[in-house]
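Re: folding output
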Amino acid sequence: MSSPLEQFEIKPIIPLSIKGYDVSFTNSSLMMVIAVCSIVLLFTLCLRKRTVVPNLAQSVPEAIYEFIHNLMRDSIGKDGLKYFSFIFSLFLFIAFGNLLGLFPYSFTFTSHVAAVGCLSVLALCFNICVGIYTKKWGYLHTFLPKGIPVALAPLVVPIEAISLLSKPFSLTVRLVANMTVGHIMLKILAGFIVALGVAGVVPLLFDACIIIFEMFIALLQAYIYTILSCIYLGDAIHHH
């Protein structure tokens, strides 16, 4: 039985090196492309025949749209809806990455710190840019809130800076840990099924239940990642 950690190994599909840097197109890159193409394909097929009274297919993207819209309105406010496209894209990319990783012989790029970490840093940079655009020089109060004596700046500013920079870490660790643990459990149970032969029907049924549970976890983690991103964006717009 192969190691449960083998499924997380990044393998180059198209080896490529530029000035000594490995920029190969890997299985992780492939799954990201598949995730984006799946999103575009789903929305294209569901919205190709739009009607005033939506049919079942049209209701799927509209339900997702309304869900994220309400999520942003409740957590950020109406003035945050101008950034709907970013949060909407973030949710779909994470959700599809989580769900596609459950297919046999696929690769879960959301289980890797590098992939999710880059996405989280991008979200942080986006929040900082929004904060600067919204508050101009007032954004500096993020590091020294109003009412705090200037004498406490050497203590407060580093604390606030660490708090800001820790946001991508909290987003990344939560998602990566949940995706990694879930797939390790599925791999171990799959190994028992093969090893036990006919008697493997019991772990097979249990594995099927775990897969259904992991589908729920995949969507839940995408929701948690999105709601935290909304909260952090709301802080950039409204805080201090």
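--- second protein (sequence, then structure) ---
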Amino acid sequence: MIILHQGPAAWGVANISPFCLKLESYLRMTGLPYKARLADFGKAPKGKIPFIEEDGKYLGDSQLIIEHLQGKHGGSMDAKLSAENRARGHLVRRVLEESVYQHILQERWASDDGWRVYKPVFEGFFPPVVGAVAAPLIRRKVVQGLHRQGLGRHQTEEILEMGKEDLSAVATVLGDKPFLLGDSPTSFDATVYAFIASILVFPLDTPLRRFTQEQKNLVQYVDRFQQRFFANWSPPA
């Protein structure tokens, strides 16, 4: 049994963190048995979520965990991918994880409207009194990180255009295919679903969310993925 340590569920999806949602999606796609628990950051081997506990050992980083699981339990979903499709999947994954993720942070943490929506859910990581104190401090660090990374230095309109270009590229690669690389899902679909769903379910009407909603193939993709892999999912008690 794999123990998945991650953040809380919210807004009708299994996790508020796209990286946690990515890993849980992969576990559901493969059928590997797991139990999800709210993470204790003190046990995180890389100081971040998600991480897993398997055979008494902890392993962090969603992608490294997936590669570990593929090596240990087999990775049949990706077995028939051509080198070109593997490269295409890799590039899409990196766009989502390295660029689109910054836009998700910008909307949840840097925007005052987004923070009002996100703060009560994020505080669920902590005991009541601790969360009220810790959340603003962590927010300050995240906003500073966005500035260091570069996205936080731009004007709102510039940030939006950058996000739209990334999402347009993902929508173009997907096209009218059922899954990112064809008729069958691969491990790359766990990332695509997690990051696009994280934008669509955030309960605030932002320009980036509206633009994503306009990409009908992305919306249909998320619906199709949820129906196939999360149909019997319910929020943890």
